[in-house]
Amino acid sequence: MSLTATQTQHHNRRLALRIYEQVNLFYQAIPDGELSAHTTGRAGRVLPPSSSVENDTLQANISANGMSFTAKERMLTGDYLLLRILLLSSMTTISTCGQVVYCKPSNPYEDNRYPHTVGIRFVNLSEADSALLRRHVDRRNKQEMTIKALTAALLLTALAMPDLAWALLLGLLHHLWEIALHVAHLLFEYLEMGLDHVVEHLLHTGTHETQVIVFYTIVTLASVVAYFVGRRIPAAGKRWLNKLLLFALRKKSSYGYFWEQQSGLDKLKIVGISATAITAYLYLAF
User: Is the pLDDT of residue 61 over 60?
Assistant: First the structure.
């Protein structure tokens, strides 16, 4: 079997098993002279301490057989890497060696700091780590399928009954707002009651003096809380906005890349089916 056929077979298998995963990825090239120490045999293998730092990567997908990720530097097919993969969702670390199966240009719509997409085949993954990866991939696939099914069901329900969906959404938001106000009122009442007892017990004050002291105490506490919360709101809002913009950019670039990879006939089919579906929906809705 030629090298191109091997890469194609591995690429198809990777597409079937891959999951997009948030990872901290550490890798370094293995010199030819040290290759046998890392790749000969699974039993009793010892990986040396990694001298690499965390590598900057935009996205990664992983399976029980290998992984791919975007990288700054170009790698050669057949090169070996020492890998340390930290799965953030389960905080599990996997140490292994990998062989570069392909290195191709990444999505041209992505940030050009990551111009290469590198495919890695695990060459000496231990049985325990292999079983861990299979369980992890299966669990994440089930979670993603469940989320997609629920999202599709909600979307179809909203499209089928838009008036009812809008009314239910407004009603839900109204009830949540009422519950939040009720909880806030109860918390304030309990705080005020507790401060009344503390002030009367410590200062032996009357009802009017107690109410005045408690009022200014609550105002002071509220001002302090508002100050510290207000200092953190801009930074938190900026982080949330940056994540939202990055998500939108990634989706836009992915859809653009997908569109560019389609043939003219496939593009015509996509446009025709989409236009037909939208026209049918608008006709039935109105």
Answer: yes
